[in-house]
Design brief:
Helix content is 18%, strand content 23%. The protein contains seven helices and 22 strands. The strands form three sheets. The protein has a 15-stranded mixed beta sheet that branches. A hairpin with a 2-residue loop joins β21 and β22.
Length: 464
């Protein structure tokens, strides 16, 4: 009797089929996961492009960029608007924080629900820089950008970074190797992907640093300790400036450092090329207190030229002395970084850069001082004679002018903003037209009269 032949699958065959199905389904799930991650990455990219457009729109309307916000809403996990900005001077409270999405009218979180980080120039929390058009931090300063009063942007066409001046406090973006994607960038926005800033390593950890000068847009990688899913966008200085081209074209105060003219009763020191400085009285380099013998306490008629910075205190003593501090051929130097004092007789002082240390001059015959940059310290002229001071830049918040002896006339010209106290017993001339001078600037000035540049004739001045 023949035995019936049974048909079906053996256990081995079933195991092989299940293994194949597992491999196929695993591949399908992996592919679906990869597609999902790709979609998230593209969503982040699109959101960041929207944010970039919002930032450009903001600066086009307000003529400055917003500060970060540094607070978190505990109920939603999102940043609490608005931006964190000092109400007194308009500088930023922080330079690395969260995107002020409410101010910008844009996205609050990335594709994973994580708030965006917003990073601005590292010195945008210093009012001396946010109010200085020659500093990259001025893109974020709001103190002197009242468009309703006819003021120009806080920044101008030559605000760094430029090809000639990289500026300071800006950032570099690299791909994690030797390739630089962007350099000298005033601001960036970071999507931290799904990883946030918790238990991250390598480039992602660097992107979470509030003190870094280099940030990373490395290749996407979701494996191992070097996982990277961040996405960045940034604005260059050129992109920022393009939004204000019409303002630059019509701004009546947009001018070279030297104004079109000075008041007729104010005589500037002669330019350096008109003085024949002797070799022994010329220093090519910074003054350190020991490397220029001719600077003495009581010699008369010294004519000294320093091509660099002054980094050690100088007492000109008695005598009619002339001191010129200028930049070198590369545009470096020209700053007073240490106190300058003097006693009897007339002093003629020319400082091409900034005044970062006090100038205090006494005596009976007056003084003539010209400053090409900003005043960040005190200039006090106590001489009984005629004192004249010309400042082509700002009197910043850390600076002040004191000329109150009243024996003869004291006259001051200030080319740009008045952010510190100015006490002058005679006349203060301002290099702005009346509509551009804020009430805060007026409140900083104590003078016999205040005159502004005539908007119809830049060679004349009228009562403000």
């Amino acid at each position: 009797m023949k035995r019936k032949q049974q048909t079906g699958f053996t256990l081995v065959e079933i195991a092989i089929v299940l293994a194949i199905l597992g491999i196929v389904l695993g591949g399908l799930f992996a592919g679906t996961s990869a597609l999902r991650e790709t979609a998230k990455f593209k969503e982040d990219q699109q959101k960041l492009q929207d944010i970039k457009a919002a930032l450009l729109s903001y600066v086009a309307v307000n003529h400055y960029l917003p500060c970060p916000t540094n607070t978190i809403d505990g109920n939603t996990g999102l940043q609490s608007p608005p931006e964190n900005r000092a109400t007194t001077d308009g500088s930023c409270d922080v330079t690395y924080g969260y995107l002020p999405y409410a101010d910008l009218g844009t996205h609050a979180v990335n594709a994973y629900g994580v708030p965006f980080s917003y990073v601005v120039n590292q010195q945008a929390n210093l009012t001396t820089n946010t109010s200085n058009e020659a500093h990259s931090a001025s893109y974020f300063g709001a103190a002197n950008c009242n468009i309703n009063a006819g003021s120009p942007p806080c920044f101008y066409k030559d605000t760094p970074p430029t090809a000639a001046d990289t500026g300071s406090g800006n950032f570099r973006i690299t791909n994690g190797t030797s390739q630089v994607l962007a350099d000298n960038i005033p601001l960036l926005v970071i999507s931290h992907g799904q990883n946030k800033c918790t238990n991250v390593n390598g480039y992602e950890q660097q992107n979470c640093s509030d003190s870094a000068t280099t940030y990373f847009q490395a290749p996407q990688n979701r494996e191992g300790t070097n996982a990277f899913d961040d996405v960045l966008i940034w604005l260059s200085s050129l992109e920022i400036k393009r939004t204000n081209l019409s303002i630059f074209a019509s701004d009546p105060t947009e001018a070279p450092v030297t104004p079109p003219s000075l008041p007729s009763d104010l005589i500037a020191p002669p330019p350096p090329e008109d003085i024949e400085f002797k070799p022994e009285s010329t220093l090519e380099g910074d003054y350190d207190g020991t490397n220029l013998d001719i600077i003495t306490n009581n010699s008369n008629g010294d004519e000294v030229l320093i091509i660099g910075d002054i980094n050690a205190s100088i007492n000109l003593g008695n005598g009619n002395d002339t001191l010129y501090l200028v930049k070198d051929d590369a545009g470096n130097g020209g700053d007073l970084n240490a106190p300058l004092t003097g006693d009897q007789q007339y002093k003629t002082i020319y400082i091409e850069g900034d005044v970062n240390a006090d100038i205090i001059l006494d005596g009976n015959q007056g003084n003539s001082i010209e400053v090409g940059g900003n005043v960040n310290a005190t200039i006090e002229l106590n001489s009984n004679g005629i004192n004249q001071l010309i400042v082509h830049g700002n009197i910043n918040g850390s600076g002040s002018i004191i000329m109150q002896r009243k024996k003869d006339s004291n006259t001051v010209y200030i080319g740009n903003n008045v952010l510190g106290p100015v006490s002058v017993d005679n006349t203060v001339y301002l290099g702005k037209i009346p509509a551009q001078v804020t009430n805060d600037e007026f409140n900083q000035i104590n003078a016999g009269s205040i005159k502004c540049r005539d908007p119809n004739d830049t060679s004349n001045f009228i009562p403000c």
